TrEMBL record:
Name of this chain's protein: ATP-binding cassette domain-containing protein
Organism: Gordonia pseudamarae
GO MF term (any one): ATP binding
Assigned keywords, A-Z: ATP-binding, Nucleotide-binding, Transport
Family, per entry: Belongs to the ABC transporter superfamily.
Matching SMART domains: AAA
Gene3D superfamilies per record: P-loop containing nucleotide triphosphate hydrolases
Pfam families in alphabetical order: ABC_tran (PF00005)
Boundaries of every ABC transporter domain copy: 5-245
PANTHER family xrefs: D,D-DIPEPTIDE TRANSPORT ATP-BINDING PROTEIN DDPF-RELATED, TRANSPORT ATP-BINDING PROTEIN
Record's keyword annotation contains Nucleotide-binding: yes
Tagged with keyword Cell division: no
Length: 253
């Protein structure tokens, strides 16, 4: 199986003050994300999860080491090349929807911007069907949609680029429990249909287990445990993983 992402000895420093000491957000981190095996990134706040996904997106450049996307250093790819390979959905992504634009324009924009060959009308209808929404919503604006519907539209917009990798940073946490499970299950089906690999940052271990094949546990900018979800979440070996599981309570699929 080929790796879609490789983090090769990645270190990222930051300063709390301009002239203060440098601290490591990521500390010589190594990771492989295998194609078509969804990965959950878990760990306490400040562990380096969001820094890692920002590096995967090419938004920050490591101080040492590199992130490879399909074998290419991500910081050597153009903005359009990156956008065609990797897309991201965050916790409050629905706030990025323009209140003035109907869903149809929202979904057509990345198709035009990336120069994709898809017919915008046909693809927009297909995208709504993929995420479990009726095509009748194409002419509606965000204010006319529920929170769950808006998040599905954001996911559809990310999928419009046909990315090989979709990164979700707490992408379900703004949803209520009922909507969350529905959207998680929808995304699992869509990822299979679109052949998209998912990297998910989440504090919800139940969601991680439901969606992901593998899990990596971060602490202090390093990966302290990594393996299949059914193994790591059932029989953790690192004290941090055990404490996260204890805090979360029973983890159900």
């Amino acid at each position: 199986m080929s790796a879609i992402v490789v983090a090769d000895g990645v270190t990222v420093h930051y300063r709390r003050r301009r002239w203060g000491p440098r601290n490591s957000a990521l500390d010589t981190l190594y990771l492989r994300v295998e194609q078509h095996r969804h990965l959950a990134l878990i760990g306490p706040s400040g562990a380096g999860k969001s820094t890692l996904v920002r590096a995967m997106l090419g938004l920050i450049r490591p101080d040492t080491g590199q992130i490879l996307l399909f074998g290419q250093p991500v910081d050597t790819l153009s903005r359009v090349e990156r956008a065609r390979l990797v897309q991201a959905v965050s916790q409050h992504a629905s706030g990025s929807l323009s209140p003035r634009f109907p869903v149809a324009r929202t979904l057509a924009e990345p198709i035009h911007a990336l120069g994709l060959p898809d017919d915008p009308v046909t693809r927009s209808t297909e995208l709504l069907e993929l995420v479990g929404l009726d095509a009748g919503l194409l002419n509606r604006r965000p204010a006319e949609l529920s929170g769950g519907q808006r998040q599905r539209v954001v996911i559809a917009r990310a999928l419009a680029a046909r990315p090989a990798l979709l990164i979700g940073d707490e992408m379900f946490s703004a949803l209520d429990a009922g909507s969350r499970l529905s959207v998680v299950d929808m995304l699992a089906r869509v990822a299979d249909t679109e052949r998209t690999t998912i990297v998910l940052v989440s504090h919800d271990l139940g969601v991680a287990r439901r969606l992901c094949d593998d899990v990596a546990v971060l602490d202090g900018g390093r990966i302290v445990e990594h393996g299949p979800c059914e193994k790591v979440l059932a029989r953790p070996t690192h004290p941090l993983t055990r404490s996260l599981l204890d805090a979360a309570g029973p983890v159900t699929a």
